[in-house]
C-alpha cells in the first residue's frame, strides 16, 4: 500500500498580477494535507473520496487508456492526473497497473465548509506522487509541478498554478507562472510529455525563500467561501475596460513583490510588513476599478483589527471571502487580536507553514 500527501497553500502577496506570466507572487504551503492511499488491484480500479460521498467509483481501461464513465465522475482533477501520468509512464516504457485510490482531505472544515486552502492543487500533487511511487519513480518538486500544471492546463484552469508550486515545493516560495500558450502549443504539436517536462518553460520561476526566524504568520478565516475561478473570470471580463490601470497595477505589483522578496533575503521583518501593506493597497485599488469584491467587509475588519495590534494584514488569494493573512514580529502579543477577531466572527486558523525537506535557497534570476 502506498500513501502520498500534499499540503494546502495560502497566497501571501502578488495575487491577480501572478496570472500574468513573469509576475511574482509569494505563497506558502501549510501543514494541512490531502492524503491519497493507493492499493494495487487486478482487473479494474476504483476511486473513493468525500467528493463521491465515500462511495467507490470503478474505473477500467479502454484501448489501453484509463476510462471512467463521465456520468459517474465527481473528481476530474484526480482522473485527469491519472490519465496524464499514465501517458508519461507509457512514454517511459512501463506496463500499466490497476489500483484503488482513496482520498482524504484536511483542507475543508468538519461541516465540509471550504477554507480556500487549495484542495484542487493538493489533490493533484498527492495523486501524481502516489502513482509515481507505485512505479518506483524518483520525482523532484519540479517534475510534480510540471505534470500537475499540464493536468490543470488540460482542464482549462484560468489560474496561475501557484497553488501547485506551493504544494509541490513546500515552505515559502516566490513564484511566477510560465507562458501558458507556449506549453499549449507543445501539447498541440504532440510533443511527448517526457520531453516537455525536461525542457525549460518560459518565464516559470519557483524560488524557495528562507523566512526570518521571528516572522510569524497568522491566518484569519471569514467563514464565507469564495470561488477563485469566478472571481478571476470577473476580473478577466473587466480587463479591457481598465487596460491602462491594469498595466500600471501589474508593474506596481511586480515592484512590490520583488521588494518583499528582497526583504526576505535581508531578513527584514519591517520591510516585509511594509510590502504587505502596499500590496493590500494595490489590491484594493484593483477591486475599486474592476468592481470585483476582493476585500470584503469581513476581510476589512480582519485587516483593520490586525493593524491595531501591529500586524501587517491583507486579503489572501482571490479574496471575496475565505482567508486573510497577518504578518507579525514574533515578539508581539497576538492574543488580544485573536479575541478582537472573535467578536467580529473571524476565526484564527492555528496552522503552520509546512516544509518537507532541507531546501536549497540558491537565488534565481527574475526577469520580465
Ligand atoms: O483564492 P486562492 O487562494 O485560490 O488564490 C487565487 C490567487 C489568484 O491570483 C487570484 C488566482 C491565481 O490562480 O493565481
Ligand atoms: Mg480563495
From TrEMBL:
One Pfam family of this chain: GHMP_kinases_C
UniProt xrefs under SUPFAM superfamilies: GHMP Kinase, C-terminal domain, Ribosomal protein S5 domain 2-like
GO MF: phosphomevalonate kinase activity
Keywords, in A-Z order: ATP-binding, Kinase, Nucleotide-binding, Transferase
Domain (GHMP kinase N-terminal) ranges: 77-171
Domain GHMP kinase C-terminal positions: 261-345
Record bears the keyword Nucleotide-binding: yes
Pathway given in the UniProt record: Isoprenoid biosynthesis; isopentenyl diphosphate biosynthesis via mevalonate pathway; isopentenyl diphosphate from (R)-mevalonate: step 2/3
Gene3D superfamilies given in the database record: 3.30.230.10, GHMP kinase, C-terminal domain
Documented EC number(s): 2.7.4.2
Name of protein: phosphomevalonate kinase
Source organism (scientific name): Candidatus Vagococcus giribetii
Amino acid at each position: 500500500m502506498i500513501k502520498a500527501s500534499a499540503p494546502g497553500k495560502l497566497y501571501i502577496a502578488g495575487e491577480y498580477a501572478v496570472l500574468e506570466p513573469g509576475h511574482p507572487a509569494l505563497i506558502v504551503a501549510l501543514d494541512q494535507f490531502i492524503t491519497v492511499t493507493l492499493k494495487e488491484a487486478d482487473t479494474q480500479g476504483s476511486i473513493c473520496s468525500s467528493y463521491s460521498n465515500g462511495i467507490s467509483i470503478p474505473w477500467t481501461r479502454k484501448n489501453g487508456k484509463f476510462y471512467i464513465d463521465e456520468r459517474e465522475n465527481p473528481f476530474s482533477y484526480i482522473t485527469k492526473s491519472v490519465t496524464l501520468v499514465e501517458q508519461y509512464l507509457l512514454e517511459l516504457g512501463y506496463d500499466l497497473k490497476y489500483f484503488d485510490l482513496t482520498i482524504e482531505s484536511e483542507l475543508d472544515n468538519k461541516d465540509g465548509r471550504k477554507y480556500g486552502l487549495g484542495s484542487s492543487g493538493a489533490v493533484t500533487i498527492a495523486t501524481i506522487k502516489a502513482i509515481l511511487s507505485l512505479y518506483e519513480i524518483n520525482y523532484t518538486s519540479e517534475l510534480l509541478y510540471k505534470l500537475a500544471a499540464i493536468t490543470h492546463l488540460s482542464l482549462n484552469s484560468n489560474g496561475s498554478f501557484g497553488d501547485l508550486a506551493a504544494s509541490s515545493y513546500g515552505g515559502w516560495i516566490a513564484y511566477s507562472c510560465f507562458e501558458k500558450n507556449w506549453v499549449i502549443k507543445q501539447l498541440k504539436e504532440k510533443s511527448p510529455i517526457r520531453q516537455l517536462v525536461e525542457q525549460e518553460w518560459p518565464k516559470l520561476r519557483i524560488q524557495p525563500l528562507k523566512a526570518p526566524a521571528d516572522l510569524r504568520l497568522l491566518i484569519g478565516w471569514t467563514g464565507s467561501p469564495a470561488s477563485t475561478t469566478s472571481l478571476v473570470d470577473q476580473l478577466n471580463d473587466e480587463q479591457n475596460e481598465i487596460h491602462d490601470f491594469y498595466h500600471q497595477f501589474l508593474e506596481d505589483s511586480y515592484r512590490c513583490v520583488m521588494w518583499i522578496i528582497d526583504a526576505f533575503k535581508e531578513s527584514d521583518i519591517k520591510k516585509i510588513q511594509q510590502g504587505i501593506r502596499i500590496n493590500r493597497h494595490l489590491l484594493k485599488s484593483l477591486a475599486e476599478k474592476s468592481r470585483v469584491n476582493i476585500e470584503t467587509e469581513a476581510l476589512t475588519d480582519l485587516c483593520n483589527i490586525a493593524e491595531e495590534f501591529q500586524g501587517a494584514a491583507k486579503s489572501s488569494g482571490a479574496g471575496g471571502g475565505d482567508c486573510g493573512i497577518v504578518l507579525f514580529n514574533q515578539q508581539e502579543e497576538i492574543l488580544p487580536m485573536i479575541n478582537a477577531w472573535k467578536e467580529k466572527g473571524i476565526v484564527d486558523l492555528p496552522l503552520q507553514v509546512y516544509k518537507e525537506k532541507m531546501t536549497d535557497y540558491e537565488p534565481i534570476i527574475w526577469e520580465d
